[in-house]
Prior knowledge:
Layout: H1 3-10, E1 20-24, H2 29-40, E2 44-49, H3 52-65, E3 73-77, H4 83-94, E4 104-107, H5 126-147, E5 153-157, H6 181-202, E6 207-211, H7 226-239, H8 243-255, E7 262-265, H9 278-297
Parallel strand pairs: 1-2, 1-4, 2-3, 4-5, 5-6, 6-7
Helix pairs in contact: 2-3, 2-8, 4-5, 5-6, 5-9, 6-9
Amino acid sequence: MSALGRIRAKNSGVNLLGKRAVVVGGTSGIGTGVALRLAKANVSVTVVGRNRRAGEEVVSQMRSVSGSPQASFDFVECDASLLANAKGFAASYAARPEVSSLDYLVLTQGIATTQGYTPTSEGLDQKMALHCYGRMAFVDQLLPLLRRSHDGRVLSVLSGGVHSPYTQYAEDADLSQAYSLAKAANAAGFYNDIALDAFSRDNPGLTFIHAAPGFVRTNWGTEMPWLIKGAVRMLARVMGKDRDDCGELMCDSLFSPDNKGFCIVDEFSQPAKRTPLHEQAFATVWKHVQDVLRSRLS
Length: 298
């Protein structure tokens, strides 16, 4: 039996009625796959994203796959590239009378472009804001609710175990001096590792997971030049896994009781390694991420 088959069989009877999840970036691709798998397990899911029409369609799909009328599903429109919006979402979500805790926070928001350094209105590179800083802002702002869960879990789906260390973390932490696509990819993954590990050290009762999804058949690269986008999508049709299969694999890391503290997992929910510079860069990178969060969220 394949790894996917084993995981699907293992989790076929999972029923998590009563648990709550927030899936940021859940309006398409991997995020939608994760949201649907959580809904199938009867988790109440709030999908966060920019596209209202797509979000409402995902809500409809979640209602169709859930086996319980008691589970609830909704969509919140939000530009996750702005850290202030994470603060606003967290405040409004916590104010809901039915919300007393949060069990799962899933972060899948992202962008695939060939653009160079592109600052948001908050002065952060757009890719870094979506792939790193904005994700950590959601974690930071939803920590009070996660702490109230008996087993709160955070899953960031990006490049766990795949990226290289970003070696210029000290002299060009935000990539504003010497930007490249490779540096942005490595820095985002490297910072996810360290920030999630730091959150784990400060919150020993919670679990923080950085996962790599592998090659998935999605609408990846909507903003990419047509030649690159077409080539990648053609390869994905031949070699990539289905969106819902990816959702099954990613949710296994959330469902597995073996995952505790800080974990890095691969596309098949198996343990992966941190980079060699992790401990050396830990204090410097974590201070940088904290400074970014404080300056935008205060």
